[in-house]
Amino acid sequence: MFSSASNIEELLRGFRIEGAMLRYNDFVPRLYNYCRSLGFEPGKMLPSRAFCSDESQGFPSILISKHFGTFPFNHGRGGAIVATQRHGPFAEHGQDLVIIQASHVGYDPESGRFGTYRRIHAENAEHTSSCGKLAVVIRRYEQEYAFAQNNVVLERCEGALCVCIDNGLLRGNRTEGLFLNLPRLVERDADGEFTPRHAYSTSKSFPASASLRRQLMEFQLEEGQRIPIGTRLTPKMFFFRRDLDETPEGRDHQELGLVSAMPWVITAPHPLLTAAQINTQVEFDRAFRTAAQAPGFRGKRLLHISGLNIDISPQPGEAFPMTHFVPWAAYVQDRDGRQTILEQPDLLRVLEQQSPENPDEMDLESAIRAMSETAMVRVGLDASR
Ligand SMILES: [Zn+2]
Question: For 130-150, b where at least 16 C-beta lie within 10 A, e where not — what string?
């Protein structure tokens, strides 16, 4: 999906977070009313959710149940990947279909940090990573980046700014790891080659490229002084390669979608927020195509909406997180097969136009009470009846 660094930067810039959040209590009735405005029939709508398996995602599911009058079909796998092979059974279970797909990220209002969530049911109510699945995926990349930050060193030799690079990072025959984008860092010689000025025992020093010299204009080094590049190693200066299982929805599906954007994820102010954002974008771009092609959805009304769930840790005394939804994009298909994509500003607009009141909202407590008061059905094992 990403072909260049500028594509990734543009996509990230295009996903507005601030000023684009809706509380779930407000989002779901508006979504229901939007479905009504598209002609979806009350009592015949079936929602599905492609959420992470994290228990923090339960509250949105409860609100979806309340407003749509049914528990949502499970359309997701860990890390909020859409299980597209479930399109068929999902289509059989409802007349008018709604897919709600969202990656999630925790938020701690006390520290203002993203990527962390208070587990109130843990022994000491400690904070852990959220999304934990994404945290595991990005950890290895963060370690490789930390190594490169310390082992690409700026030095002044014979009056010129040089970049001294660890030999491990220069080995081009690796299949995995962090690779430096050498033309951004190192000046080519007259033959267009990257020729070291000095070869040390475990590293090589090259004259810095004109663009790096320009970026570090203010940066004064004494002759012989050496400083690790640190945060000056910016996303366009490196990339990652990884041997991943490329099977769609296979073992490495999520990592595969993130790997080309990983330099931006791990250098972002909130890496797990950026990772969740990209996961949502990559998954929508992939999954809406499978929905548009799925034979089961032909002749049916379908709304596939994607976004980001921001889980605000419950405070003492609260049972649920205060989850916010940031819409990203939606795909709408009518019974005649007309297809529309709504980009984020359009999607926000149509949701804001809807009423936050839902006259069809279900009273879950009385529905559950009614079930307990209904006479018990005798479940028989006699196949001849
Ligand atoms: Zn998760």
Answer: bbbbbbebbeebeebbeebbe
Q: Are 351 and 363 in contact (CB under 8 A)?
A: no
Going from the Cα of 131 to the center of ligand 1, the distance in angstroms, rounded, reads 4
On the CB side of 165, CA atoms within 13 Å amount to 24
Residues 5-63: pLDDT tens digits?
778 899 899 999 999 999 999 999 999 999 999 999 999 999 999 999 999 999 999 99
What's the maximum distance between 2 C-alpha atoms anywhere in the chain? 95
Distance 247 CA to ligand 1 centre (A): 21
pTM: 0.92
Q: How far is the CA of 335 from the centre of ligand 1 (A)?
A: 34
Q: CA-CA distance, 230 to 316, in Å (whole number)?
A: 40
> Where are the domains positioned within the chain?
5-115+270-373, 140-241
What residues does the ion ligand 1 have nearby, CB within 5 Å? 52, 54, 131, 133
HSE, side-chain direction, 13 A CA sphere, residue 352: 11
